[in-house]
Design a protein that fits this description.
Helix 8 runs antiparallel to helix 9 and helix 9 crosses helix 11. This protein has one domain: 4-Layer Sandwich (Metallo-beta-lactamase, Chain A), CATH 3.60.15.10. The longest helix has 22 residues. The protein has eleven helices and 14 strands. The model has no long low-confidence stretch (mean pLDDT 93). It is an alpha/beta fold. It is 37% helix and 23% strand. The structure holds zinc ion (ZN). Zinc ion (ZN) binds next to helix 2.
Length: 324
């Protein structure tokens, strides 16, 4: 599905089958002499077909097409290596992706160890790794990225787009801002009808803290339209940021309240309100539990940095407790 947003700006809906996100929004920006595709969907048949069908129906000259990737998740970077010429991508995340591709089992081993230390049952954690979209649908091809850093500008097809680094959802997530048109391509930094997943990362020591700072960083941008990486578009950036802040504050309160005794993140996770429909935590799918535990760790790290929570390691298990 293609939606014309403005002159020279199209939204292409890339389906994500059996995924609660439903679809990725790819944006095509530009006219005549150059086009930029923002995000691509996953490296899987359904995404590839939707993307190429849309680009062909828009009669895009592929030799004039470049790509911008907001962050390293498979639903954004999946087809980056095959669609266009130049691929713009954050310098920090380029390095992370290179390391992951050089030693994928080492990278996932570190992640697995952390989740197990936080109480995730080992068997379930191993099952999760077989299902993880980051493993199944990322291209394993090495891409020559054109690395960008905060403040860089991309001049393409009559648009001047500023790169704004917004770490939190991922280690060095990047948004694009068109100051003249007041358009904010927010990737997964600001989503409208769902809340971006803020999880534990081995590359950030306080991902929720970084995320809240990154919300502050874009709060005062002059924006008429927010174009997110998933679901619907929205005009009021500040109102949405205020809602997301309230959401995390409420979760921080729940996390603290759950600490009636020292607990692992796995034990705390069921006490927090998730955007999931279930009656019994046991029924929740392992993939959803994985994301919930990752978010719980991120909230605990934040509380620890604030001095409200401490942690101890007992028999290889990380336990959190309230500071007195
Ligand atoms: Zn995404």
């Amino acid at each position: 599905m293609i939606e014309k947003i403005a002159d020279g700006i199209y939204r292409i809906e890339i389906p994500l089958p059996r995924n609660p996100l439903k679809y990725t929004n790819s944006y095509l920006i530009g006219r005549f002499d150059g086009f930029l595709l923002v995000d691509t969907g996953m490296n899987r048949k359904e995404c590839r077909e939707a993307l190429y069908t849309a680009l062909r129906s828009l009669q895009i000259d592929f030799s004039k097409l470049s790509v911008f990737i907001t962050h390293l998740h498979a639903d954004h970077i999946g087809l980056a290596g095959e669609v266009g010429g130049e691929v713009f991508f954050s310098k920090t995340e380029s390095e992370i992706v290179r390391k992951m591709l050089d030693d994928p089992s080492g990278y996932w081993e570190t992640i697995l160890e952390t989740y197990i230390a936080n109480g995730f049952p080992e068997r379930e954690a191993k099952k999760m790794l077989r299902l993880h979209p980051g493993i199944r649908y990322t291209s394993m091809e090495k891409i020559e990225f054109s690395e960008v850093v905060d403040g860089d500008e991309i001049d393409v097809g009559g648009y001047l787009l500023k790169c704004i680094e917004t770490p939190g959802h991922s280690p060095a997530h990047m948004c694009l801002y068109d100051e003249e048109g007041k358009l904010f391509f927010s990737g997964d930094h600001v989503l409208i009808d769902i809340t971006p997943n803020i999880t534990w990362w081995p590359f950030l020591d306080n991902s929720l803290g970084s995320y809240l700072e990154s919300l502050e960083k874009v709060y005062n941008l002059d924006v008429n339209l927010v174009l997110p990486g998933h679901r619907r578009l929205w005009y009021d950036l500040r109102k949405r940021i205020d809602e997301i802040r309230r959401h995390h504050r409420a979760r921080l309160v729940e996390t603290l309240a759950a600490l009636d005794r020292p607990k692992t993140a796995w034990e705390i996770a069921p006490s927090i309100t998730w955007d999931l429909v279930y009656t019994d935590w046991e029924e929740v799918h392992v993939v959803q539990k994985w994301f919930a535990v990752g978010e719980t760790i991120a909230h605990l790290e934040y509380l620890q940095k604030e001095g409200l929570v401490e942690r101890d390691v007992e028999n290889g298990l990380v336990k959190y407790f309230k500071s007195c």
